[in-house]
Amino acid sequence: MSESVEQHREAAPDHVRAAVLTVSDTRTSETDTGGDIIQELLEEAGYEIVGRDIVRDEVAQIQTALVDLLARSNVDAVITTGGTGISARDTTYEVADRMIDKKLDGFGEVFRMLSYEEVGAAAILSRAVAGAVGNKFVACLPGSRNAVRLAVENLLVPELAHVVFELRKHQKGR
Question: Which CATH number fits domain 3-168: 3.40.50.200, 3.60.150.10, 3.90.1150.200, 3.40.980.10?
Fold first, then answer.
C-alpha cells in the first residue's frame, strides 16, 4: 500500500456517523436484513449508525429521504440498500446519480469485479454507485444480503473513514 494512502487512513476521523436507507416495496423494520447487515458490520468496525429508514422504491420518496438525511449535521455518510437493479421499480440509481456531485466510479467497478467472483456474469446487473454530495458520502448497494455484505466488508469498512476525511479536508470549521 502506498505511503500516502496509509497516511491518509491514519489521519482519517476516528468517528464517522452513517445513516442507513433501505429502498424496498416489501421490507419492514422486522425484515430489513440488508439494513441490519450494514448496521452490524459498520458498528463492529467502529462506525456510528445515527439513523435508519425504509422507503418505497418511488423516486420522490427516495429523493426526500436522501435530501433529509444528507441535511443532518450528524450524518457523514448515507448507505442505501435496494433499488439498484434494472427492473422498472429500481430507481435508487437514478435518484443518486442526479444528486452526486463527484462520482467514485471505482466503487461500482470494484464492487462488480468482486461480485463477479461470487456470482459470475450476473454481476453486470448491478448498478451500485457511490460518490460525494457536497461534503457527504453516499453509497448505493443492491438489496441482496450477500451483495450488501460483500460491499460493506470489502469496500466501506476499510475506506469509509478515509472517504470522509477527504470530503472534510478543505472544509472550513472542521
Answer: 3.40.980.10
Count Cβ atoms within 10 A of the Cβ of residue 151 and give its class: 0-12 exposed, 13-18 middle, 19 or more buried.
Answer: buried
Local mean pLDDT, 10-residue blocks, the chain (174 residues): 62 82 96 97 97 97 98 98 95 98 98 97 97 98 97 97 91 58
- 146 sits in which H/E element: helix 145-151
Full-model pTM: 0.91
Locus of grid cell 467497478:
109
